[in-house]
Each structure stands twice: as C-alpha cells, then as structure tokens.
Specification:
Helices cover 44% and strands 18% of the residues. The chain is built from 7 helices and 14 strands.
Length: 496
C-alpha cells in the first residue's frame, strides 16, 4: 500500500474490526451468561417445589410435577436410583442418572420410606389433612436444602423432541431421614435463540460497518490530504521550471498541513533570496574581476609590444588588487559553506597592536587605545579576526579626513573593538546596507581609491560566526564608528 489513504483506511478498518469483534464476543458471553442464569433460576424454583413436596412425605406417585416440556424432573435417592420422573421424559443427560423409568422397588405409589399410604389408603400419613402448603422445615417434617443447588447443562427428550436444558439439583430430606435429590430442568431454547439472533446480526452488521468505516476513512483522508497533493504538484512544477518565485497554495485551515504550506513558502522565499544573492554575487564578482584583469592584460600587451612603455608599478598594483579580491572571494566561499571558527584563545589587544604596527603605508596614522592589562581574550580563529580588524581599519582610512582611532575595552563580560574616523559617516538609512556584499556608498569614488565592497560584508560574517556582532553608528567626531563585540549582546560604546 503506497497510498496514505489506503494505509489509513486499512488501519482504521483493522482497529474497528478488532474492537467490534472483541465487543461482540463480550456481549455474546454476557448475554449467554445472563440467560443461562435465568434458566438456572427457573430450574431451581421447579426443583424446590418438588423437593418441598418430598419433604412433606408426598408419595412418589402423587408428586405434583411441572409440565415435562417446560421442566423435566428426575428424583433420585441416596444410592443414585431413580425413584420418580416426569411421565413424558424419554431420554435425559446432564443429571444424576440417564434413566427415565423408576426402579421397580421404588415404583410410584410407594412412600420411599417403606409405606407410602395410611390405613385408609388415602396416601396421607398425617391424619388426612394435606399440609403440603406448610413450611417444609416445620419440626416433625422433612427438610429442603437451603444451600446453592448444583447446576449442569444437558439435554432431555420429551415426546420425541430433544432440546437443551439447564438442570438444577436440590436435596430434600423426608421426615424419616431419607435424602432425595430432585433434578429439574429449564429449557435453554430462549438463550440459544437470543444468542443466535445476536450472532447473526453481528455477522451481517460487522462487514457492513467495516465497509462504512473504510469508506468514511478513505473519503476523510482524501479530503484532508488534498492540500498536500496540491503542495506536491506545485513543488514538482517549481522543480521542473526552476522558478523560485512561485509559491505553494496555503489552505485556509489552521492545521498541520497549513503550517506545512506556510513553512514551505518561507523556505522557497529563503531559497529565492539566496539564489538572488548568489546571482548578484557572481555578477558583481565578474564585474570586479574584469577591470583589474583587463587593465593588467592591456599593460602586459603594451609591454610586450613596447617594453619601454610597460607600467610595471601599475601591473603590480592590479595584481595585488586581483590577489586581494580572490582572497576575499575565497573567504566568503568558505564562510558560506559553513566553516566554523577555531577554538584558539586570541588576545584582541595584542592582535590590534600587531595589525596597527604592520600598517606603515597608511596616509593617516592610527591612534590606539588599548589597556595594558585586562580580560581581552576571546575564542576563535586568529586569522579571521585579524582580517576583520584590518578591513575596519582599511574602511576608516578610505573615508577619514584627518584621524582614525581604534580602541579595545571590556563591557559586561564582552570584548569590544571600536574603529572610528572623522569622515562623512554612514547615513542612518544605510547602516545595514553597508554590510551587504559589493555595496559601496561612495559610487563616485574610483575603483582604484575604493574597495570592492566586500570588506564590511566579510567582517560582519566573521563576527556573527564568532557569536558576536558588528554595528555602525555615528562617532563623536562626526564620522563612522564601527563596534565589534565578541561575544555578547549587541551593544555599542560609541556615540549616537
């Protein structure tokens, strides 16, 4: 089953089938037990009526036995011999004996205690009054067992018809001490008919119900998964067309499928933005590389044709620009690939001293403010952090009028490096845009004087991968103030 609808329908059908079968079996067992108990109660009542007569010493031949079809009766003595039985009883099982004809020595009409009749032959041993309606346990009379009777299931054949019965066995003791057992039955036809009817109804209704469950589950699942099919189809179309501007349909519900559609669209938006950045990056990189390569080629071609006209310093300058640009592009590629910074402990104060001391060709000297001691260490890649400081100083040198300053301090457990200049500064509306790749706010500046627009982008990427931030505000001198915080929440010690 490759379809979710089919698996859901099959699963629901199996679960409902197991539940219904279990419930049906339980209902049948309870119904059968209740009806069997009712039959047993009827058999017990019939047996106690006959036992009451025996306790009153009624002769076997004069016992008032119930209808043999409703309640077949057997009476046995202590030795298990049949002494009385229903007249129409032809066969029986499940009682104390399978005999249906009383023994000759205990023929109907005898008392079971040896006599059975009084002097006038009336059969009343107590003076002619029939006291059968009196309590069987009256002193001087016999007794009927008050304990729970024994129950058994069996069959009885009455007038040629065999049926199932529930038999109850009740003991009775005559006034002469003779113990007799009365076996009376109650038909189980009602129980069998009811159980059979319920079983037939279940066998007919169960498949119908399972078909209904399967159909409803199929339809509900199909309706629920319809938006998923729409999402799948649109994603397939997007993949085929490579058009990341398309979006999957979002259902109006607030369920998991709607959240899936919204998440998918958010992913497509991020992919579209990433693809756009990649295309712009390639275009901008090609544009930036074309100028120095073209210039270098021109100089080399001129030098090849006219060696005396070769501008060797210019060629070296273009080569250095190409090398720097290639290094920037390579670092950005590594950062985009998810390169993690190292775990080296770096002293930012010492790193700033080292970077400033190597800048011997700057047009404006860099003023440093670094404490001689303090917790200025951070964890990261020394080379990448040096690149950040160098890029910030390069940016300040390009825009400063007369001063560039760098300072290192601690603030709320973080190490903060600030680089300020007294140039034109960065307009507030452009303070995030300057960190985008290949962005230069001074478009009128020539490429020879300006950079490729990658320095600040690299600096922020490195800062973020070190768990820090890089922000720009307005310096007290009126220029730009770049603050590198490693690590900690975004905070700037510069002015507003």
């Amino acid at each position: 089953m490759r379809s979710v609808r089919a698996r859901a329908a099959a699963g629901a059908t199996v679960v409902v089938a197991v539940a219904l079968i279990g419930a049906g079996i339980a209902v049948l067992l309870v119904l059968r037990a209740n009806l069997t108990d009712q039959a047993g109660l009827q058999a017990e009542v019939a047996a106690r009526e006959v036992a009451g007569q025996l306790a009153l010493d009624v002769p076997y031949g004069r016992l008032d036995l119930p209808d043999e079809e409703e309640h077949p009766v057997q009476v046995t003595d202590e030795d298990g011999r049949l002494v009385a039985a229903s007249k129409g009883l032809e066969a029986v099982s499940g009682t104390g004996t399978d005999r249906v004809t009383p023994n000759a020595s205990q023929a109907p009409g005898s008392s079971g205690s040896g006599d059975g009749t009084d002097d006038d032959g009336s059969g009343d041993r107590h003076g002619g009054d029939d006291d059968r309606d009196d309590d069987a346990n009256t002193p001087g009379r016999g007794e009927v067992s008050t304990g729970d009777p024994d129950f058994n299931n069996g069959t009885a054949t009455v007038d040629g018809d065999t049926a199932a019965y529930r038999f109850a066995a009740v003991s009775a003791t005559t006034s002469t001490g003779v113990t007799l057992t009365v076996h009376a039955g109650a038909p189980l036809a009602t129980e069998q008919k009811a159980v059979g009817s319920v079983r037939a109804a279940m066998l007919i209704g169960l498949p119908v119900m399972l078909l209904v469950v399967a159909a409803v589950t199929w339809l509900v699942t199909r309706r629920a998964l319809r938006p998923v099919e729409g999402i799948r189809a649109e994603m397939a179309a997007i993949t085929a067309s490579e058009d990341l501007s398309r979006r999957v349909p979002e259902p109006g519900s607030r369920d998991e499928i709607a959240r899936l559609a919204r998440t998918t669209n958010a992913t497509l938006t991020a992919l579209e933005a990433s693809a756009g950045r990649q295309r712009r990056f390639v275009a901008d990189a090609s544009h930036e590389l074309r100028s120095p390569i073209a210039s270098l080629r021109t100089q080399l071609e001129v030098g090849a044709a006219h060696p005396e006209l070769l501008d060797l310093p210019g060629a070296v300058t273009d080569t250095v620009r190409l090398q720097a640009l290639a290094a920037d592009l390579l670092l950005l590629a590594r950062l985009d690939a998810g390169e993690r910074p190292g775990n080296t402990r770096v002293d930012l104060g010492a790193l700033v001293h080292e970077e400033v001391s190597q800048r011997t060709g700057d047009r404006i000297p860099v003023a440093m403010s670094v404490p001689e001691s303090g917790a200025l260490e951070v964890v990261g890649a020394r080379g990448q952090l040096a690149r950040v400081i160098g890029n910030l100083l390069d940016n300040a040198e390009r825009h400063a009028e007369s001063s560039v300053a760098v300072s290192v301090l601690t603030d709320r457990g973080s190490v903060v490096v600030t680089v300020t200049d007294d140039g034109a500064g960065v307009p507030e509306s452009e303070r995030e845009r300057v960190f985008e790749r290949f962005v230069r706010l001074d478009d009128a500046r020539s490429r020879d004087e300006g950079g490729a627009g990658l320095g600040l982008a690299i600096a922020r990427d490195v800062a973020q991968r070190h768990g820090g931030t890089l922000t720009v505000t307005r310096a007290a001198e009126g220029g730009a103030c770049f603050a590198l915080r490693l690590p900690g929440p975004e905070s700037s010690p510069c002015g507003d």
